[in-house]
Amino acid sequence: MDWFHGGLQFQLEHHLFPRLPRCQLRKVSPVVQDLCKKHNLPYRSYSFLEANVWTIKTLRAVAVQARDLANPVPKNMVWEAVHTHG
Predict the structure, then answer these.
(1) Euclidean distance between CA atoms 74 and 86, whole angstroms
(2) What's the pTM value of the predicted model, to 2 decimals?
(3) Closest by CA position to 36, among listed 12, 17, 18
(4) How far is CA 62 from the centre of its chain?
(5) Which among 2, 59, 71, 78 has most CB atoms closer than 10 A?
(6) CA-based torsion, 49, 52, 45, 76: positive or negative
(7) What pLDDT, in 10s, does the model give residues 59-70?
């Protein structure tokens, strides 16, 4: 199913190793998990359904913030997106 998901199930690994070929992300995932455990860092792994639900909830929260620009929330996700550098 790696091809179907496009490697998005290994997003953390991709951002740590952006030049690593997608077909190698599964191999490096246990190393990243062990490193996170060693340094007491959270490593979140969601199922396909959970990840989609989380994404839709986040998109909804951003849409609600963007819709109410008359009463903007300081430093909301829309502000962050507009003022992103790099």
Answers:
(1) 21
(2) 0.59
(3) 12
(4) 15
(5) 78
(6) negative
(7) 898 888 777 766
